[in-house]
User: What shape does this take?
Amino acid sequence: MQYQVTIALRYRALPALEAALEPLADALLSEAIAEDHPLENRPDDQWQLCAIAPDQSTAHRLADEARRALAVQGLPDDSVVVEPVPALDWIAHVERDAPPIALGRFLIHAAHHDIDPRGRVALRIEAGLAFGSGRHATTQSCLRLIERARRRGHVVERALDVGAGSGILAIAIARLWRGPVIAADIEKLSVIASRAAAKINQVGALVQAVESQGLAARAVAQGGPYDLICANILAGPLVALAPKLRHALAPRGLLVLSGILVRQEASVLAAYRAQRLSLKGRLVDGDWTTVALARGPRRLGWP
Ligand SMILES: C[S@@+](CC[C@H](N)C(=O)[O-])C[C@H]1O[C@@H](n2cnc3c(N)ncnc32)[C@H](O)[C@@H]1O
Assistant: This one.
């Protein structure tokens, strides 16, 4: 018999609770219960953190630690529940639930997967708090367009990933072109995640993770012009960022935008057409659309 300590909490309290419980727990599992928006982690989103303990006394120590960490943040501690659960091999559980993903040339996997990349570009991305496990349609469409650009001989000497999350797109770009990529994100947690993931994927020297709202950080603003920019954020910020993204794009650069619901595509494209960028490619997956844009009518070797 194992024990599980379950804590209902707001997203903003999650990092502190995880840090407090990690040394004692066999495993920590966190999941969103109610989100304002499925593509963004907002501070008030409701999450649940489960800490798995090997025995009852560890479970009670975990519960005490959790209450202490909640109290430090001035949060109520009445949401901490200890209960016995049937023993389960958590690693096997996670592995079964989340097998590696083969996506074009990419093979997205975690450390516990026993993979044989065989000519593929393996991207090791650990499940964590930063968005970008590779399982979302928007991430996958970006990866497909990135790979297509590589296959079509698009030249990339500098690249930018706006809204890098786990760093997955920046890492993919660095692995394909072996050049410098800036991975920018508004959230510090994502910057930490991108930096760590870049190292694990042997592109730590190529990927520079930067905290930035849009392109505001100096490293981002001064790092261009970029031959490839990916921005998988949301339609609203993408429209707002249109002039800045256009300015940062090299004359023959390619811009890949995602996080756009199909019904929002026309308004996003209108904002970019106003910047004299035209549509070069498009991928629709379910409700989501991903577009590739470039300056003027030139085809850039793009379909
Ligand atoms: C949908 S996730 C994309 C993650 C990853 N690039 C992928 O494709 O899986 C969006 C990320 O954009 C970040 N973000 C949202 N608005 C932003 C902005 N204005 N500037 C920079 N990052 C932003 C969020 O913090 C989040 O990590």
Summary: The first strand starts at residue 2 and ends at 10.
